[in-house]
Design brief:
alpha/beta; elongated; 13 helices; single chain; Rossmann fold; four-stranded parallel beta sheet
């Protein structure tokens, strides 16, 4: 039988004291990055598992899971969180919620805090970041937690993190929306985009833009306006688009909540939707069907995303291989997008 690797073995391999190795793997105290990397590398190489912690997690002594989202006030995250909480209730688990307001450093801090609470699982339900420094910092937080038997599941693409994930088909959904809008006769488009570092922005913008290109339509860079993924961000981005001179017959906001702000901005500037300009969003949050006019969008089953993420985090098998589940979106055409001929 192979001899059990001890914490002392890890400390010796990393060239650090036993106390330092313990602090790194327990996540209870800040340790210099260089020392931390050495300990984590040694633990991974030796396949070290701290038994007491692993047994506590695997034995489900913790009745809590950690849920980290970007903005709890955003209906997109509220819908996903509802699915998580319903699934948690079915398993008699409590949910600890953290809202980062899309601050990458705050997301890492929440992971560290929840590790300290020894939650049974951690769910990351916001977009990942196209940022290698963030990816590496998050990986350093998650490796000892995963090594100790913790489980992690993410929603949306998270580059660099080898964790289970439930990925809405952002790129394919945006491509299908572009195809539907082109079929309505539109040839001049503008996009209200979110922060460029978010993987959701990268995927939705690429899917939309690629489909336009295949249709022989050029999306001018000055018709892509970046704002925050909020109602106010959509309002400000739409206002800047108008101030620069609106040439588009149809505007695509990368999230519904941005589209809500854009609709208000257009009205405040004397434009009607879809009489003067068509408007579309993405996500199908509950409010958009009640707008005047109702919003064209890509419907994503938000509660189902949350339920699936929780199911993945609680799956009984202990395989270390990460899994990806993909969830398709459906284009829903509503009155906010008129055909080009009808607009003319």
């Amino acid at each position: 039988m192979q001899q059990q690797v001890t914490l002392d073995d890890v400390a010796q391999a990393a060239g650090v004291s036993l106390a330092t190795a313990s602090r790194v793997l327990n996540g209870t105290t800040q340790v210099r990055a260089e020392l931390r990397d050495r300990v984590l590398a040694a633990a991974a190489e030796l396949a070290y598992i701290p038994n007491a912690h692993a047994q506590a997690l695997a034995g489900a002594s913790s009745r809590a899971v950690g849920l980290i989202c970007h903005d709890v006030s955003d209906p997109y995250f509220a819908g996903i969180a509802r699915g998580v909480m319903r699934a948690a209730t079915e398993h008699n688990l409590q949910v600890i919620l953290g809202s980062t307001l899309r601050d990458p450093a705050q997301e890492i801090a929440y992971v560290s805090m929840m590790r300290g609470q020894r939650v049974r699982a951690i769910l990351l339900i916001g977009s990942g970041f196209e940022d290698r420094d963030w990816q590496e910092a998050m990986r350093r937080e998650l490796v000892p937690y995963l090594t100790a038997g913790g489980r992690v599941a993410a929603i949306s693409r998270h580059p660099g993190l080898r964790v289970d994930s439930v990925n809405p088909e952002n790129r394919a959904g945006a491509a299908a929306l572009a195809q539907a809008l082109v079929a309505l006769g539109h040839r001049d488009f503008a996009v209200l985009s979110g922060p460029a570092a978010l993987t959701t922005v990268v995927d939705r913008l690429a899917g939309f833009q690629d489909t336009l290109t295949r249709s022989g339509i050029v999306l001018d860079p000055d018709q892509i306006v970046e704002g925050s993924f909020t109602r106010d961000g959509g309002y400000e981005a739409a206002t800047r688009l108008l101030q620069a001179g609106l040439r588009a017959t149809c505007v695509f906001a990368l999230t519904d909540i941005m589209a809500v702000g854009a609709l208000a901005a257009f009205r405040d500037h004397g434009l009607t939707v879809p009489g003067d300009v068509s408007l579309a969003g993405f996500d199908d949050i509950p409010i958009v069907g009640d707008l005047t006019p109702p919003l064209t969008t890509v419907a994503i089953p938000l509660e189902e995303l949350g339920r699936r993420a929780m199911t993945m985090a609680l799956r009984p098998d202990k395989s270390t291989r990460s899994r990806i589940e993909r969830v398709a979106g459906t284009v829903v055409l509503r009155a906010s997008t008129a055909s080009r001929s009808a607009r003319s």
